[in-house]
Design goal:
The protein is of the alpha/beta class. The chain has 15 helices and 9 strands. The radius of gyration is 21 Å and the shape is globular. The N and C termini lie far apart (63 Å). Belongs to the AB hydrolase superfamily. Lipase family.
């Protein structure tokens, strides 16, 4: 038995070493290979996590500033078990960070604690359970404001534009619900696939996991802070290796679609190996358990530690809810969602709309098969999503814009 365990561990190490060889490129490498400049920055949170940020200060053509001109700043935040890589995989022609840099923006991409670029700490080892004792609450209330304030400090600007995708929408909603005044540091806000209320999630594997990990128990407590980076490394190695085979690629797409939305014709098949080399990009099990709690309770609230844990943490038997009605940005928020998104379903976006109202802008993709991943890596992501986001940001900043018609969206996002 011991020999079998040793062999399994050795096999896992070989696979992990293989995927590391395939993925030696970090986000800056993926940016500079296309001729764009890139800077890597780090910032340390108040509780000791060392987070990586990537900056594209200029576009392909340079976009040098005229004398006295201030370049507007935009900050992007990634999805669950993702990293800054998710925004640059599609390359310079279609990728949102590249397009923004070419349009004259100072582009920053963040990373949350625990992902492959943010696994350092001033005192904790990433192989300790203590390192992984965090949920969406810590990412939202510590990581996100720390990174945003760092970017503002480096650029010398009082406010920035924000683009969040999936978990990047969740964490901003938590931050602004609990600390409404932080909205003063933001200009335009664009939220892609908003994963905030999750009562109608349709992903079969996610629903199965939520049954077992969406309610506090001794089992969830055991797994919550278990170091899992080797397991995720093994998943990346196996999936990326197998899915490079063209005969297997379609099966890989079908498996991915069980999470994100069935039968999307927009999935860029050529990106599958690259996507699977970089995703899942590690994270805390407690992080995913927090999402499962949203699903099982149909509530948007702080992490549930169970009665005793909640009393110790919050002074109440239940975790406090996050009230999205507290969110009031200077400009209306642009929400982007779709009918075939299994992880951020339109029914839940409609509920969010019922709470936040018509002040904000709700952009419902008119293509019936557009799914969760399509908001960043679809074959038509440039024409459907990114052209519109860039144009709206240009218009907000009072800069020349193309006048994109944004025809990808339904004229009436909700049935009245």
């Amino acid at each position: 038995m011991k020999i079998q365990i040793v062999l399994i561990v050795l096999l896992a190490e070989i696979f992990i070493t293989t995927v590391k060889g395939q993925s030696n490129l970090n986000t800056c490498d993926r940016i500079t290979r296309h001729g764009y400049p890139c800077e890597e920055h780090t910032v340390t949170t108040s509780d000791g996590y060392i987070l990586a940020l990537y900056r594209i200060p200029n576009g392909h053509a340079g976009n040098r500033l005229a004398s006295g001109e201030i370049k507007p700043v935009v900050f992007l935040m990634h999805c669950l078990f993702c990293s800054s890589d998710i925004f640059v995989l599609v390359g310079p022609n279609d990728g949102l960070p590249f397009m923004l840099a070419d349009a004259g923006f100072d582009v920053w991409i963040g990373n949350s604690r625990g992902n492959v670029y943010s696994q350092r700490h001033t005192s904790l080892s990433p192989f300790s359970k203590e390192f992984w004792a965090f949920s969406l609450d810590e990412i939202a209330q510590i990581d996100l404001p720390t990174e945003i304030e760092y970017v503002l400090g480096v650029t010398g600007q009082p406010r920035l534009n924000y683009i969040g995708y999936s978990q990047g929408t969740t964490t901003l909603a938590i931050l602004l619900s609990s600390k409404p005044n932080f909205a003063k540091k933001l200009k335009a806000v664009h939220l892609l696939a908003p994963a905030i209320y999750l009562c109608h999630v349709r992903s079969p594997p996610v629903l199965w996991l939520a049954r077992y990990f969406g309610t506090p128990s001794s089992v969830t407590s055991f797994f919550a802070t278990l170091p899992s980076q080797r397991a995720y490394g093994l998943i990346r190695a196996l999936s990326s290796g197998l899915c490079q085979n063209p005969q297997v690629t379609e099966l890989c797409v079908r498996i991915l679609n069980t999470f994100t939305g069935f039968d999307s014709p927009y999935m860029n098949r050529t990106l599958i190996p690259e996507l699977l080399i970089t995703t899942p990009a590690d994270g805390s099990n407690q992080q995913s358990h927090h999402f499962f709690q949203f699903i099982t309770t149909c509530e948007f609230k702080a992490f549930d530690f169970g009665t005793e844990g909640n009393m110790a943490k919050y002074g109440s038997k239940k975790p406090p809810p996050y009230d999205v009605r507290n969110i009031r940005t200077e400009e209306p928020i642009e929400f982007y969602f779709s009918d075939n998104d299994f992880l951020a379903p339109p029914e839940d976006v409609e509920h969010l709309h019922s709470l936040m109202g018509d002040r904000d802008h709700w952009n419902r993709v008119r293509y019936s098969k557009y799914n969760h991943f399509d908001f960043t890596i679809a074959s038509n992501v440039k024409s459907c999503i990114n052209d519109c986001v860039v144009d709206r940001l240009q218009r907000y900043e009072g800069r020349p814009y193309a006048g994109t018609l944004c025809t990808c969206f339904k004229k009436k996002p909700f049935r009245k």
